[in-house]
């Protein structure tokens, strides 16, 4: 059975640069949003990246920092669920 058959919502394929903001010593991980819908997204991250279970995902083209919770992890991909939004943190350079 295909993975997307388990999804409640269809994800729109996108290719957006983004930054995972962990708040731990204002740490940042550059990533790419591969697909997205109102409730979540799939991210491509560096294979050796340390990504916590909860973080802010800042997407400059959207101008939004999404509160995110990790739902699954596979190699260099992470599936996240959005739990809200926040203004971009003042300490983020972008």
Description:
With 94 residues, the protein is mainly beta. The protein has a single domain (16-87), classed as Beta Barrel (Thrombin, subunit H), CATH 2.40.10.430. It is built from no helices and six strands. The protein has strands spanning 12-21, 28-37, 40-44, 54-59, 64-74, 77-86. Strand 2 and strand 3 form a beta hairpin. The radius of gyration is 13 Å and the shape is globular. It starts with 11 loop residues before the first strand and ends in an 8-residue tail after the last strand. The model is unreliable at 1-5 (pLDDT under 50).
Structural class label: mainly beta
CATH class: Mainly Beta
- Give the strand content: over 45%
Helical content, roughly? under 10%
> What is the CA-CA span between the terminal residues?
40 Å
Major sheet characteristics: 6 strands, antiparallel, barrel
What is the tally of beta strands?
6
Identify the CATH architecture. Beta Barrel
N to C succession of SSEs: EEEEEE
Domain PilZ: 7-86
InterPro entries: PilZ_domain (IPR009875)
Pfam family, one: PilZ
GO molecular function, one term: cyclic-di-GMP binding
Quick recap:
With 94 residues, this protein is an all-beta fold. The protein has strands at residues 12-21, 28-37, 40-44, 54-59, 64-74, 77-86. A six-stranded antiparallel β-barrel has the order 1-2-3-6-5-4.
How is this fold's topology laid out?
Layout: E1 12-21, E2 28-37, E3 40-44, E4 54-59, E5 64-74, E6 77-86
Antiparallel strand pairs: 1-2, 1-4, 2-3, 3-6, 4-5, 5-6
Domain PilZ: 7-86
Protein name: PilZ domain-containing protein
GO molecular function, one term: cyclic-di-GMP binding
């Amino acid at each position: 059975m295909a993975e997307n058959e388990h999804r409640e919502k269809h994800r729109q394929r996108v290719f957006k640069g983004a930054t995972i903001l962990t708040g731990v010593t204002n740490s940042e991980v550059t990533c790419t949003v591969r697909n997205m819908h109102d409730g979540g997204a799939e991210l491509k991250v560096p294979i050796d990246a340390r990504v916590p279970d909860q973080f802010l995902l800042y997407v400059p083209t959207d101008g939004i920092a999404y509160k995110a919770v990790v739902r699954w992890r596979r190699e260099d991909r992470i599936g996240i669920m959005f739990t809200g939004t926040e203004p971009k943190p003042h300490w983020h350079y972008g």
